Amino acid sequence: MVFNSLTFVIFFLVVVGCHYAPLPWRMKKFNLLIFSYLFYAAWNPPFILLLWASTIVDWWMAKLIFREQRPARRKRLLVVSLALNLGMLSYFKYGAFALKNWAALMGTIGVVYTPPAWDIVLPIGISFYTFVTLSYTLDVYLKRAKPGNSFLDFALFVTYFPHLVAGPIVRPIDLIPQFARPRVATRALFLWGLALITLGLFQKVVVADAILSPVANDVFGAANPLPPLDAWAGVVAFSGQIFADFAGYSTCAIGVSLCLGFSLPMNFRYPYAAIGFSDFWRRWHISLSTWLRDYLYIPLGGNRHGHWQTYRNLMITMLLGGLWHGANWTFVVWGGLHGAYLSTERFLRARYGWEGEPSGLASRLLLALGTFGLICITWVFFRAPDFSAAGHLLRDMVGLSLAAPPIIATVPLALAATAMAAMLTLHWRMRDVDLEDLVARQPAWLTGAVIGVMATAVILAQGEGGAFIYFQF
Amino acid sequence: MAERAAPPIVWVRALVVALVIIVAGVATWEVAMRREGLSTRDLGDGNSAWARERRRVDAAPGTPVIIGSSRLLFDVDTVLWGQLTGTPPIQLSRAGTNPRPMLTDLANDPKVTGLVVVGYDPLVFWRAAGSATKLVAEARKEPLYKRIDLAVYDRLARVFAFLDGSMIPTSWLEHLDVPQRTARGGFNQPWKLSEAGERRDTQMWPRVENDPDYRQRAAAIWMLPPPPGTKPTSPAEKTGFIAAAVRDVNAIRARGGEVVFVRSPSDPPLLTLENKLHPRALTWDRLLVATGAPGIYWADDPVLAQFHTVELSHLRRADRAPFTRRLVELIAQLRASRAKLPHDRSVGVPAPVRR
Please, which contacts does A89-96 make with residues 24 or more away whose CB atoms are closer than 8 Å? Predict the structure, then answer.
């Protein structure tokens, strides 16, 4: 189910009721596990089998890897775990994509191959929980952690509903130790959790769905050329929509967890205030970027073998990071652009000896806006269904369709512009500030008023409870 | 990872302030929306409500089904139909939605063995399938939580009038009288045309009938320029649509079912536009001949021809009952006459029945 649904409200009340009931801790954990399976089953019950398979395989593989001392055998066991996890992911997520590309490849050498119909539903959140379970096995293989002693704790770590379908991609060290002893939230923590849920829902329901998504959908779905203002408005609106949608989910997940007494890691840190692309990736989808860094970039050699190897490793990491988002070459190009940005930034810093950030406000602002503008270009490939659509939109953005009639009406355009101006300003003002610190400096009534306004807006902007964009990944 | 801590403020005070604002904000909006004409009679009509009715088709094979766009949705009183025939039809028409993908969906469903009434609105029927394809596909795999959501929503909608997807604050803002940069948009469209009761029994929103300015706004949308990028349907595409309809009608008939096409009233200048873009002889007549399905064209019937629309396209609330009565009579007559006709069951194509 999704956080922005009426079903979730009931579900959450029941979960909280059981969690705060006078029951033994082991029973509470068991309850949480069952509720997490119900949360997942509310999408498509049979796919729970995949979740179980992933849980059982990694639990045992990690134990076997830990016991095994011979490097070759350890590697073989790791390969088994990777093959099972990534095999499942590949089958469901990339099967149709692989067949389509195979047919195209055959076509280039004159062989006509018609792939069979691949009408397979993508299990929700499979990319996320695959990475979660893999991190457990990989940590044990890399001798960063020991396997856990409690299967219940491990199963709950994999399945824990707040992060299950769209992250944050938690590490074993982040969550499993929290299951070791009884946890409940204090009244303050519980209410702070509710405040974060409200903030997350406001981002999703009001900012992403009600204000930005109509503009982005119209522009990315346009069949005719667009004037530059409309083209840019759509792309900038999508940049805001995807942030508000995904950060909204993460904020809800963190808030729900806090209400139960658990802490989840931060997943976003005001990314559109980033100065440069390394900074952006320290602020955007932090749990994925650190996962890719720790389990892909560093094992590839990271920056330890000279400039060119570093650029190669960055490109491989970002290309695969792009493919993780979806089975389409447009996602690979999105990742490739980010890889190119990161490599270019690294090259320029090395070439001119730039370190850290410039000190002047104007140059910092200019660089932040430049970073945001270039990131918007990458979103074109992320959102467009194919290269043709992306190409048309890029042409419109550079002003090759000046005479085209506008398609975004005045009010939606003004609403989206206001929302984006507010979002960018907020990111800039908050780039070095923790939300907790900001709230601590405000009077309680002001915090309550802001939460009240956001909650009211969420209630009034009720819609169909649209799924979060990142669920499809 | 560091443990999270709550900011040290007086949280109970914050909670009280938040609750006061929520209650005041929701109550104010509720009052404002009731003044706009929203009521708790209206249970809304989202995709989930449609999906629930679609599931009822499979749960009760043989029950009459109505598909189409807004005309048969607003114009037919399904409760009265049930009283007249003993079986209320399942209302699957959807505003602005092409019935062709729905017909294909029903044709592919072995549980559809009864009467299927297809609302024929030329401007919708002959255009691309559009959102109907997604509607049908989503209904087939609707997750469990959405079904629970709908059950909860139904109960809330009976209490709060503002719970209406077409009147959220951002949509409401779109109707502000400000200089416009586009030819069409929310500003020149009505924010609401109908209200839906139990089982999607839908009728004209009273304000369309009672508020002349609003009625004018509702009528004007039919004559707006088409959205940018809209391509007229080519003759080849129309031929393809008809071929698909033939397959679908045959499939339903092969199971013992029947398909009846219904063209309900519209008025000039919309009617003039419809006839210009889709001349009857080249579209309606051709469709009936090809499919062999019976059809009811309102202008051909002396009773139905007396009906006129509120805003060029839909009947007023008071006209639903007489319209439905006559429609039920005509369908019964057509089915009776078809039963007397020679009918090749192996092909499932009877001789065409036309008024």
Answer: A89/A126, A89/A127, A89/A130, A91/A120, A92/A50, A92/A120, A92/A122, A92/A123, A92/A126, A93/A122, A93/A126, A93/A127, A93/A326, A93/A327, A94/A323, A94/A327, A95/A120, A96/A120, A96/A327
pLDDT exceeds 90 at position A44: no
pLDDT of residue A121: 74
Is the alpha carbon torsion for B224, B225, B226, B227 positive or negative? negative
- Residues B31-45 pLDDT 10s: 999 998 999 999 988
Whether the complex's predicted ipTM surpasses the cut of 0.90: no
Helix (H) and strand (E) counts in chain B: 15, 9
- The pairing of strands B65-67 and B90-91 is parallel
- Closest residue to A411, CB basis, from B7, B20, B187: B187
Cα separation, B271 vs B275, whole angstroms:
6
| Residues B112/B255, Cβ–Cβ less than 8 Å | yes
pLDDT, tens only, A361-401: 999 999 999 999 999 999 999 999 999 999 999 999 999 98
| pLDDT tier at B6, thresholds 50, 70, 90 | very high
Partner-chain contact B14 A195, CB within 8 Å: yes
Q: For residue A303, give both structure tokens.
A: 């920056």
> Minimal Cα–Cα distance from B329 to chain A, Å?
38
Q: Do B29 and A460 touch (CB under 8 A)?
A: yes
Question: Which residues, other chains included, contact A148 with Cβ-Cβ below 8 Å and sequence gap of 6+?
Answer: A154, A157, A172, A176
Query: How far is the C-alpha of B73 from the C-alpha of B203, rounded, in Å?
Result: 7
Residue B344 above 80 pLDDT?
Answer: no
Question: Cβ B174–A409 below 8 Å, yes or no?
Answer: yes
User: A436 forms bridges with which residues in the sheet?
Assistant: none
Chain A to chain B Cβ contacts (< 8 Å)? 187
Catalytic residue positions of A?
Answer: 325
| Cross-strand bridge partners of residue B196 | B202
Residue A171: closest CA among chain B residues belongs to which residue? B1
Q: Which chain A positions have a beta carbon within 8 Å of B165's beta carbon?
A: 462-464
CB contact under 8 A, B13 and A191: no
Span A222-276, pLDDT tens digits = 888 999 999 999 999 999 999 999 999 999 999 999 999 999 999 999 999 999 9
